[in-house]
Amino acid sequence: MGTISRKLGLQLTGLVCAVSAALVTAAAVAATSGAPVRVGGTLALTGPLAPTGLIHKIVGEIYVEQANKRDGFLGRPVEWVLLDDQSKADLARSLYEKLVTVDRVDLLLGPYATGGILSAMAVAERHGKLLIHNTLGIPKLAKYERQIPVYSIGAVPEQTLPATLFDALAANGKTPKTVAFVTSKFPSVHFMSVGARETAKKRGINEALWLEFEFGTRDFGPIAARIREANADFLWVGSIGLEGNQLLEALKKLDYAPKNPFFLYPSPGPLAQSPDAANALSMTLFEDHAPFTNTPQATEFARLYRERAGKAGITYLDADMQAAVAYAAWQTLEAAVTATRSLDDAKLAQWLRANRVDTLIGKLRFDGAGNYGDDLQKIKQVQAGRWITVWPREFAPPGARMNLQ
Amino acid sequence: MPSSTLLAQSVLSGVFSGALYALMGLGISLAWGLLRIINLAHFAFVFLAGYLVYQCISVSGWSPTLVVVLALPLFFLLGVALQWLFARFSVDEFASLLVTFGLTIVIESLIQWIWTADVRRMETPLSTWSVKLGPLYVPVVEAILLLVTLAVVVAAWAWLRHTYVGKALRASAQNPVIAAAFGVSHRRLAFVLSGVAAATGALAGVFVAVGSPISPSQMFGSLGVVLAAVILGGLGNPLGLLAASILIGIAEALTMALTAPSWAPLVSFSLLIFILVLRPDRV
Amino acid sequence: MRPANVQARPVPGQRPAGRIGAAVAVLVALACLPLAHPPAFFESFLYLVFLWVALATSWTILSGYSGYFSFGHGAFFGVGVYTTATLTTAAEMPFLATLPLAGLASMLLGVGIGAVVFRVRRLRGELFALLTLAITFVLATIALNTPIDGGPGVFLSGVSLPRLYATPASTLYLMALLVAALALALAWQLQYSRVGRALFAIADDEDVAEVMGVPTFSYKLRAIGLSAGLAGIAGGIHAVFVTYVTVSETFSITVPLYVVLMSVMGGMRRWYGPALGAIVVTALTYAFVGGEWALAGRALIGLTLILVILFLPQGFAGSMSSLRARWQPRAARPAMPVAHVAPRPSTASDAVSGVGSDGAGAPFLRCEAIHMAFKGVKALDGVSLEVRAGEILGLVGPNGSGKSTLVNVITGLLHPTAGQVLLDGIDLARLPAHRAARAGIARTYQIPRPFARLSVLENVALPAMFGGLQLAPAEALERAREALAFVGLLDRAADLPSMLNLHQRKFLELARALAIRPRVVLLDEVLAGLTPAEIDSAIAMVRSIRDAGTTILFIEHNMRAVLALTDRLIVLNQGRVIAQGRPADVVREPQVIEAYLGTAAC
To answer: Are residues A260 and A391 in the same domain?
Structure first.
């Protein structure tokens, strides 16, 4: 009995496998057929911007997979032509030339970070291509008609973000009397800090300290000592990447916990997971909690991201702003393609500038100055090792509140 | 006018960052001064060691002592292997710079392949623990770093100055032909020195990993300042290196404490330029 | 590898003129490429290739040729980038007009650095490299903290391009092509010119080059000025190419590392080497941009660099030449048959210049009260002496008596603390060493110091170009052959100095001194280390030089030779002249015997 039944079992298993494989293939073919729609873009997969480039890559892969499970774009499968710009703007420029003129992709998506996006935009403009991008930090530099900024920080974030921030403090009854500013001279960071400084002045808040440091500073000890001495009610840290962590550690070594520190563009994982960063504030467009994850699509995205990011070796598994804006760029692209039933750059751009698009980070519009729409930035805070949105209140998860000193 | 506490705290901070420059630079200074090898891959060794230490302690949960005990001989062998390569192809000073730059890129890619481009952070209770001395705070990890650096630098100095191996190495560096005539085997000595240099790099890597979050592309971050310290201190001169490193550290820290921190690099590199132009025989 | 390589190296004067036409044709063809409407990517890719060709070639003009390894190319490039960025935006100048200014600003920076740094003799090799790197960091900090940039970066989107072609991409392509062509043409022109030969000599032994008449300081300034200026123009164009300029990307370490990498890979002592390297490295960068292969590609670039440096230490260009040389049968090689020059072996007789006019015996080179102190130690303490036309004047003294210092003072390498060196009434003491060589003073070195990477013939041609005769390259080669024939080394003309034995290298020293038809030649222990038989032939040689009319200052330990050769003898001890007169009389003076006890025996 043993042999026969085992053999039969094997055959049955084989049959089931074969049938299901055939079904899956058939489904895929049914969903998408014809020549693929090719979407081209570069990301910083190596070099100093690679940590964030990796997040965008994971998200793009998730999206393409999901799109192809539905019925692709216009019933055709989606193919992502992804190139590595090595974190260099000049390389990004010629790679976009390559995507447009050699690979002849149908659609473009922007690279990660301001410098690369501006390079790509120049290429897109020359060829009349639509460029949807998601991380251009300096809106006033976006001057091309067919560029669509998914990174919804409004046309003048240097005014609107500080306003949101100080409103949040005021609403919690903690308007600071003094504020200390420390900022990196990194381009997309520095102008925001300058704007925050002006906002504080307008609101009659005393400036206890204004310090600029070079991007790439190694020793934050003396800066920390000056922050400690200024001992302001509020600390604005214009930082990008790990600078925030380095500064907090230097402060901790002086046994000083700054009152209400705000970090502009921190690496989300390291800061959230740092024991010294409890209650640290930052800006966001999306975090992995309700109400952002109230839609099935967002829940599924957060779940998939957690799974893939873990596989890829990323330590902070919550889908955060970077992941969400990467996803939103794809959503915007698909929305335009679906609505116009076209891959024509002019039509797509025209439609996008006239319509609103539902994305993970909100309902976006692209009809303001430089095609920017609303400033959707929110304030988030590190609570129990995670980033939690705390302002505006309707975006905070149930029961969460802003902890201020 | 900044308070004296602020100034003293900044000087202290400068001393500590100087200590790290010295520990990172020691291997470069020794290889450059005594073997005429400019080893840029030393920075890659430092980071490789940092990542290995992170992996063993934070991920695999090994005891830190065990890790250090294992890492030092491992990197000693790496240094020996590198020197073998240089000897095998009789690489000259300038070519060594380029070969080791290539090696740095390879190691950087390797690190990114294994540990991804994402930032890694080694959590130890020590990281942010400070002791208060009067009005000043002394971070424990950095105090240990300073002590280790002092010990290693003084040991390296004594080794070169008082042991046979050290004297023979210095003799070879000054005149290989005459030293060879006196029976000094430069080849074997070079292996030992290169191994020791790489091992000091591994030690520096431990402190880099403990001191701050790491990502692969950061390995070029302190290249300029460490090379400045190595040159200022005099090639192959451990005590000079330590003095120069701490001088640069303090100069940068005081610039940060007194003026805009973004002017800090100007001080160390101007210092280097002035010393090179005005006192070139010093280096 | 090296010996084979030298034979293939084009010698000065042999300019492959037929190739100019081909080069121009290639240039025109490339310039017309946009008319064929290739995909814009090719223009953009070729733009980057040409940009790097221009940068790497400009680096080589300074560093490959003269041996001053610059890590400051980021600074020269960056000054160009920011000059154009500032002028086109803040001053609203037209883009094309900013380019000469970008080049000029970089050139001024380069010359400024050179004017300070090239005076410090020790600042060579890796010290120069680090110095220039430090300057890059300093400039970056200044740009970041002043209105030049100030932090936010400079955006050049509104800058309008000249309409050289229909699209901006084609226009930028053409501009990069032109800069690359300009850089290559200059590098090529330099390599075969007097300046280029001088720079190669500087790379091998700067002091010797200066003593042979090369105005090293001004030549190095020219090289750094040219190099920096080209990098500046390339930077100005690149500012518009990237359109958004930031400090951290402009003054990054990438630029110097890449140009060094490309030049070394390609071969940095040949004008076309860096271009080869630039093409290969840029192509490699593009070969691995696919998302999946990014990491492997980066590792592969690193690995390629390692392998090329280890296995092709002279780069592609050098190795290609070596291969070509290996394929040519060795027998076919003697390009300069001895018989060709043999009919007039003793042309040194033309060298008489002082005798006829001044009359034999008239003093024409005088040292007056020369003092030389090194950090308080007196090496020369009031030395006065005169050299008379047509004589062999012996100069002896124990070790450390100041002989070598005196030779260095007379040839201008050292400037005395006090005193004068008068030649025809002109004081040479404060002038750079090359002025002494131009005035007709030549010397040999006790330990021969040939230019290691120049052939024997080129070694001798160099002083002929720069010493008193100031010959054009082709004439200098002819003169060098004569000098080599005179010392019997003509059959080794194509070899590298390292292939000669000590005796031959000493004769090479002699040939280099004679190549300028010197009025006076300082022979510094030419006999040391020779066998008795070789000494005899050397003595005969010295005599025949004098017989041909050249005045000789003969510095020697070998008393037999001194007594046999010299007309007059001067004895130096502890920086002072303690005796002078007829050799036979001088050696009997008590203080000479006292100073010489122990050494006189040998």
So the answer is: yes
